[in-house]
Amino acid sequence: MDIERSLDIDAPREKVWTVMTDVERWPEWTASVTSVALLAKVPFDVGNQARLRQPRLPVAVWTVTAVEPEHSFVWQTGVPGVRTVAGHRLEATGSESTRVPFSLSWRGPLAPLIGLL
Length: 117
Prior knowledge:
Layout: E1 2-9, H1 13-20, E2 35-38, E3 49-53, E4 60-68, E5 72-79, E6 82-89, E7 91-94, E8 97-107
Antiparallel strand pairs: 1-8, 2-3, 3-4, 4-5, 5-6, 6-8, 7-8
């Protein structure tokens, strides 16, 4: 199962990237995240892990699997039977505006059950 949404933001891509990769502050601006704790205080890059709490979901540890600075990052988490992959991209739509496409995909033998929740 896959979903994708996008949001247009009135800010340059570089500024949006700084906010987006400061994952411990996500609860300040998105209701879909209750808390985020980086498991190591290192620059945001492949291999970084964060413990994420979200309403109505079990606590999950997300691992960054790909980073293209100021353009995109991908991270993933999983439980037996389902792997969740989230992609965050930034597309400059002007000198002071950015489109932020966000994707979620679920893979594994239990992934078809996600649509039933």
